Amino acid sequence: MKNNIFIIFILLNFFTYGQKEYYEVRKYELPFNSPEEALHKYFSEGLLPALNRNGIQNIGVFEALGSPIPKQIFLFIPYNDLKHHAEVTQALEKDKNYLSERKLYDAIPENKKVYNRFTVSFFIAFDSLPRLIKPKEDSRLFEYRIYEGYSEDAVKRKVDMFNEEELKIFKNTGLHSVFFGEQISGPSMPSLAYMLAFKSMEERNINWEKFSKDPDWKRISSLKKYSNTVSDIKRIFLKPLKYSAL
Fold first, then answer.
1. Range 42-46 contact pairs with CB under 8 angstroms and sequence separation of 24 or more
2. CATH 3.30.70.100 domain locations along the chain
3. CA angle 232, 235, 239 (to 5 degrees)
4. Which CATH code for domain 24-124?
5. Which CATH number applies to 1-20+126-239: 3.10.580.10, 3.40.50.2000, 3.30.70.330, 3.30.70.100?
6. What digits encode the pLDDT tens for the residues 206-222?
7. Is residue 9's pLDDT more than 90?
8. Which pLDDT tens digit goes with each residue over 50-86?
């Protein structure tokens, strides 16, 4: 019964929107004692409002937990599709309000730089989760995972594993999905990435334990067609900033 409900949810989601979302994930690395307020001002008063005016909602802005050095800020932008990304990029170049805010940001001198470098990765949503799921308001802990494969085929088989069975197990064991995407450009390819949301680390640990003990997970994880699909896993815990929409 649970599986049937999950399938109905996927079909309704797909036929309502008719397309898979396209995700941009930026990771900013900040220098030690960075004057990061300028970056947050640009995001909250310039970039994000401009993206909102172009039909983009549910933009996430996070910082990595644990006070890593260099400090890391993550920006998550969902587009309707690849065409939407191109349209928005062009629209920003004509947005007077955005360009005004951008002037202040661009005028930051080198000795007060707000980041060392940032990387950009693009993902296309999975068939089984074509659009992100906005987390509940009390979600304060986000888990971002990157699964690297030793080959393109290995990643494809892992995507199939999620689409065919694993996402259903996530849902049933309380691993609250935000998005799943196959990487189409950026570092660490070939790979896929996903984000989960929890109320707390305690909830996260309890539900991951449920997943690891789930009989369906034990069954599919032993199937030959899904063997050797993940060669490395990168995991980072994030907390949303006050102006994040996620």
1. 42/101, 42/102, 42/104, 42/105, 43/75, 43/243, 44/243, 45/101, 46/98, 46/101, 46/102, 46/104, 46/105
2. 1-20+126-239, 24-124
3. 165
4. 3.30.70.100
5. 3.30.70.100
6. 999 999 999 999 999 99
7. no
8. 999 999 999 999 999 988 888 999 999 999 999 999 9
